[in-house]
Amino acid sequence: MLPRFTHILRAVHTPHSPSAMARVIARTIGVSRGLTQTNSVSSLLFSSELTLIHSTNRLGGPLLSKSALFGRNFLTLCRKEDERVLRSPVRVFAEQRGYRKVRRRTPKSKEKELELNVTICIEEELPDDPEILNIAEMLRLNVPMAMKLAIEGLKDSEYKTRDATISDVGGFESVELSVVLCNDEFIRKLNKEWRDEDHATDVLSMSEHIPELKLPILMLGDLVISVETAARQAEERGHSLLDEIRILMIHGLLHLLGFDHEISEEAEAEMEKEEELLLKSLGWKGKGLIQSACEAETAGNSHMEHSDDKVSKDRKKGGSLRFYKPKFKYIFCDVDGTLLNSKSEITLTTAQALNEALSRGVKVMIATGKTRPAVISALKTVDLAGKDGAVSEFSPGVFLQGLLVYGRQGREIFKRNLDQNVCREACYFSLEHKIPLVAFSKDRCLTLFHHPLVDSLHSVYHEPKAEIMPSVEHLLAYAEVQKVLFMDTAEGVASTIRPYWSETTGDRANVVQAQPDMLEIVPPGTSKGGGVRMLLDHLGIDAKEIMAIGDGENDVEMLELASLGVALSNGSDKAKAVADVIGASNDEDGVADAIYRYAF
User: Fold this and answer.
1) Beta-carbon-side half-sphere exposure of residue 419 (alpha carbons within 13 Å)
2) Which helix (H) or strand (E) holds 453?
3) DSSP state at residue 427
4) Which of 217, 319, 379, 460 can bridge 385 by disulfide, Cβ–Cβ 3.0-4.6 Å?
């Protein structure tokens, strides 16, 4: 029988030359080595006797072998009481164990026993999710039960459309099957390599049975199940993830046994009937994959595995990060123009992505030109501020363009003030030209006169409400100033304010622009990137462990420093020039897109 790759409502028969066939075996046989669950079946009935001893390490233990599938490692599931041990997957004889040989009486009559050998594997990139580990443990018992009933069903079978290449299993000494649990990314690569279809599916059945070889072992092959897709389908169909994985396992097993619902309506009806019969006999929930998919399609809610992939093949879906290991330990993120959209709001989609990243152990660090209270105010609207959120009064972060850095427990580890003479000149420039100015002093904002643009800094950008100072000298004596901010039209900043202050400050200060209609004057030799580097040193973090997301020219150093720098498409040309990748815009949930696409 030719190798078969199957998935939801589809079975693909791919002809192979003998050499290609051998490669199929070579690539898949590694998954089914290291057998871990053995059930002896006498006349296809369970017996408590275990006739073959294999590796018995509990799930989550060391890896038994490297799978030939993409050279990946797989965790293999097995149990011996409650011990965690590792043994080579070989037959163990009495003389090897050091036991005395004992002559056994030959039974007067004993039917030939058929061993069902099952391996449960977890692909190495799938995290140690408790639910998945429990399901794998359950499959260790469920799969042999399903195999037993399915093989029994082949006897006296009257199905007209089933490929009868596998019929009399009595001629085999054992039957081998492996079940691999993986995520969408892994199964998509399998689809791409073996079927030249670049999308994820819920289950693939990869047959290893070659009748011409006349082997004593019936190698059914490998069932590869995406728990990521299974989780979505389970939610859509109103049952548990275990229920859905059982349904997929039954569907894939029947394909390995010769059923193929795609060849005709009669074949579909026969396979659907067998699916329902097996599920009912086992007492498992569900109507079978074929009927579930047909009902979903009739209801206009069909879940095609590759429909979303047309939008993006690399972007993971919301709620799916639990099925992936993080690529970075930290995400440094800018706020204005990045985390916030053009309305200075953080969307629910972005909040969900940040929450998912946080729940998977990734630390989100804020690196912004804003004050800490402003960021807390903005993120509080989506419950991302506080102890378990992205920012709080007790979390590390970089604020005011790196002029104020907080370390462990939110304690200040660095502060740099603007030269007082530069600050004084900026204040008088503001009064003379009636251009609103805001001076930042840690968590406070100070100004010299009332102006709608100054009010917007509070009402739109979440900054503390500016306090109006009676005079320039009063402002300078009242507080230490870290930076000053001019606000005008984008044209006014570009044509007048920036050229003037770039020349006037000289080496006494630097000009920084994060927004087109704002210009900041900061102390020389300081930057947001410098603040990030200082925080990394303080926390003992390697730059290789971080991903950075930003949009402005003030993010350039941070993007260059990070292992992966993502500039949003709405960003400045300077930011995009140094970034490793250019993401979606802040109005297209660019931060969420970067997290789902690159962080895991």
Assistant:
1) 15
2) helix 452-459
3) H
4) 379
